[in-house]
UniProtKB/TrEMBL annotation:
Superkingdom classification of source: Bacteria
Annotated TM spans: 93-114
Protein name: Uncharacterized protein
Source organism: Dyadobacter sediminis
Protein's UniProt keywords contain Aminoacyl-tRNA synthetase: no
Keyword Acyltransferase belongs to the record: no
Keywords: Membrane, TPR repeat, Transmembrane, Transmembrane helix
Residue windows of the TPR repeats: 177-210
């Protein structure tokens, strides 16, 4: 029953009930004080959690919301002489507390899945990508205009055209680490993790490069894809990078603390 009720609460709060369902549910709330109290607690916690994840309130504000709930619904009778007193028999009180506990558990589990911690390694990898690779820097004076055209297409989010440029350059100049790197980033921007991983692996195998980013970009791709086994593979790469003075070693040392 608790699960059905929480589904109703969620549908109501998110405006997903039909007019008939909404009217029936509101009638239930009006006639059942126990249900109304449980709904108010659920709504208060849900809103507080949502706002917390949006960084609009802090932990203290969340605790204040919970304290308000305690004051509203569980303060002893003697401390609120003017309030309308709802007397609960032990069975009803136990049932309400079980609903509240289950509601809090459902909300916390949902938000831990939908809004992972900012220190989650997938969040760290995605943030790194967003901060560094949503736009590529134009290289002034580069002799290969095709590379600049590819970068321009990438920055316009015309990823298919950008790939044509980058792959064409690499086919003509297999030593071009820039073309391979940009091709990998373009696949990553498209969400084509398989081809991105292949490109970054090829980049990682290139010799005589100063600060080859191939392995680090491969680890980022694995974390963003986040399939079974990807985190472990990314962790192994980062453990290797952490002991080397190469691109991604500093980030790897920090991110390894969050696995």
């Amino acid at each position: 029953m608790e699960t059905r009720r929480f589904e109703q609460f969620d549908l109501y709060l998110n405006g997903k009930m039909s007019s008939e369902e909404r009217s029936y549910f509101e009638a239930e709330l009006s006639s059942d004080s126990d249900l109304y109290s449980t709904f108010e607690i659920y709504r208060t916690i849900e809103v507080a959690m949502r706002e917390k994840e949006k960084h609009l309130i802090n932990d203290h504000a969340l605790l204040t919301s919970l304290h308000t709930l305690n004051e509203r619904y569980f303060k002893p009778e003697m401390e609120q002489p003017d309030a309308r007193i709802i007397r609960f028999d032990p069975g009803k009180l136990a049932r309400i507390f079980s609903w509240i506990a289950a509601a809090i558990a459902v909300i916390f589990i949902s938000y831990s899945v939908l809004f992972p911690s900012k220190n989650d390694v997938k969040v760290l990898a995605t943030s790194y990508y967003n901060e560094n690779f949503l736009q590529l820097s134009q290289t002034m004076g580069n002799a290969d205009d095709s590379l600049q055209s590819g970068i321009a297409a990438y920055n316009r989010k015309d990823y298919n055209k950008a790939l044509i440029y980058f792959e064409s350059i690499y086919n003509r100049h297999p030593e071009s680490s820039e073309a391979k790197k940009y091709a990998g980033l373009t696949y990553l921007a498209k969400g084509d993790y398989t081809h991105a991983l292949e490109a970054f692996e090829e980049l990682a195998q290139m010799q005589n490069l100063y600060g080859n980013p191939g392995l680090f970009f491969k680890a980022i791709t694995l974390l963003m894809r986040d399939k079974s086994g990807d985190r472990q593979s990314a962790k192994q790469i980062m453990q290797k990078l952490a002991i080397e003075n190469t691109e991604g070693s500093r980030e790897s040392k920090e991110w390894l603390k969050n696995f």
